[in-house]
Specification:
Radius of gyration: 17 Å
Strand order of the largest sheet: 1-5-4-3-2
Number of strands: 10
Oligomer: single chain
Order of helices and strands: EHEEEEHHHEEEEE
Largest sheet: 5 strands, antiparallel
Structural class: alpha+beta
Helix content: 25-40%
Mean pLDDT: 91
Length: about 200
């Protein structure tokens, strides 16, 4: 992450949930959805999407990222740390990432002089995340499915896994797995790893 002083919003949330480890993928996506929704309210002209499993994009440019780490004790999750970074005020990026990064300021084309208060953005993300947290921990992503489907930036696009599998992204299940209709046939559930868009996807 590159975050000049006063430009970005980087924070961590500590959760004490006592849930099984299988609940962690839905948590990462719920956090990404909260960031996506707050960013879309801050930059209403931008088409903000989630890229499974942990990025928030506008087009092909990264606006924010989520990282979830857990401490487990006896097969239960004792603590979860949700780390979130959002590009807020940055208007210029280094050459090596200029084509892959964006910010709320750059996407607020309808109000170029507006300056989003980072404190307000933080409060929005936390309120949205907290509202759905207990339900997602208990039951997975079913209760936020309509929002998740609208925000899914991969659905219908050609994707490739780190292991070389290819196919077409076909949504996200309630456990947080990416559903992929494989080029070789069949439906796969990808539970972790980075996903790459196929050329022309």
């Amino acid at each position: 992450w590159l975050s000049p002083d006063g430009d970005g919003l980087l924070f961590s949330v500590l959760l004490r949930l006592g849930c099984p480890p299988s609940r962690l993928p839905p948590l990462a996506l719920l956090a990404g959805l909260a960031v996506r929704d707050a960013a879309a309210r801050a930059a209403p002209d931008a088409d903000v999407k989630i890229k499974w499993p942990n990025d928030v994009l506008v087009g092909s440019r990264k606006l924010a990222g989520v990282l979830v780490e857990a401490i487990t004790v006896g097969g239960r999750v004792d603590a979860v740390i949700v780390g979130i970074g959002i590009n807020v005020h940055t208007r210029s990026f280094p050459d090596e990432i200029r084509d892959r990064a964006t910010s709320i300021a750059l996407e607020s084309r309808g109000a170029p002089l507006a300056r989003v208060a980072r404190a307000h953005l933080l409060a929005d993300v936390l309120a949205t995340f907290e509202r759905d947290l207990d339900g997602v921990v208990a039951d997975g992503l079913a209760q936020v499915r309509p929002r998740l489907e609208r925000a899914d930036g991969l659905c219908g696009r050609g994707v490739r896994s780190d292991g070389g599998e290819t196919g077409k992204a076909s949504g996200i299940d309630d456990d947080g797995c990416l559903l992929v209709r494989l080029s070789t046939g069949g439906l796969a559930r990808w539970s972790a790893g980075e996903v790459h868009l196929e050329p022309g996807a």
